Amino acid sequence: MGNLTTKKTLIVWFFTDDKPGHLNQLKGLESRLSAHTEIKSRWLSVPSKNISCFNILIKRFSLEGDFVPDLVVGAGSKTHKYLVAAKYSYNCFSLVLMRPSLPLSLFDGAVIPEHDNPPVNDKILVTLGVLNNIEPRAPRLSGVTENVRGLILIGGESKHYVWDDTLILKQLEQVLTGSVNVKEWVLSNSRRTPSSFLVKLKERNFPNISIVEHQDTESLWLPEQMAKSEQIWVTPDSVSMIYESITSGAATYAFDLQAKKESRVVRGIKVLLKKKLLSQWPDIEPKSQPFVLWEVERVVNWLLKRMSL
């Protein structure tokens, strides 16, 4: 995708509720905005601020000594009234990530995932999944098969899928024994992973697999692992990890768990399977991704055009 550039420094306020998933979306947007133009960012944590609906209605929003924004962005329902207040106080462009809890007419733009069934509106850019802070890696040389690495990301209990230690371990064993082109595997869990899973996993003593527990990782660990991996397996409850894996350019696979209901997460997984961006167990055949999915880059191009920059 070609870069759009602007001459002036873009002043951007990022409103966050400090939830990791929302922060990841905002950081991804900030990173790609700064790749296209010079920006000056201010991060505002909404739990530490207090603003009433009355203040929104009378267009009163100020922070002493602050620079006036050209763009305000928020992710998470708690940020929405702050976006509206800032927009009407400073006559700036407001962008909401994900479906807003307030009327769309109060915002200048919205980025909404396809699985949330957004309405047709020229203010809305529909994305395949939520934004993330992963950048696609450089293409691998064809035919290179030495020291091929694989990554396994294990989630756990969720509202969307029935968790089953035994089932995942059975599928994992077949992945490890059937993926003959992968010579080295790294596995990590999450905060939601039942402690019983790691106990059973270690009892199996699978060869060529290193276990790195989530509490032993830092923020850059996952992007670095994704960049090194040719193949990534993720449990379907960890949907954000699936979108990040696909964005990295690695061939991405999902373990198979029973869905509890036809939720937006389950619908999103089905869309990825239909578009062949994701494969699912028992399909363990090596494959390459059909195209680069880099939604945050597409969002930035669209946003700068809408802002006429």
Describe the structure.
With 309 residues, the chain is of the alpha/beta class. It has 2 domains: 137 residues, Rossmann fold (3-Layer(aba) Sandwich), CATH 3.40.50.2000; 132 residues, Rossmann fold (3-Layer(aba) Sandwich), CATH 3.40.50.2000. It is built from 9 helices and 12 strands. The chain has a 6-stranded parallel beta sheet with strand order 2-1-3-4-5-6, sandwiched between helices. A 6-stranded parallel beta sheet has the order 9-8-7-10-11-12, covered by helices on one side. β8, α5 and β9 form a beta-alpha-beta unit. α1 crosses α9. The protein is elongated, with a radius of gyration of 21 Å. The two termini are 17 Å apart.
Order of helices and strands: EHEHEHEEEEHEHEHEHEHEH
Shape: elongated
Oligomer description: single chain
Find the CATH superfamily of the largest domain.
Glycogen Phosphorylase B
Number of helices: 9
- Read across the widest sheet, the strand sequence of neighbours is 2-1-3-4-5-6
Count up the domains. 2
Number of strands: 12
Pfam families: Mito_fiss_Elm1
Protein name: Mitochondrial fission ELM1 family protein
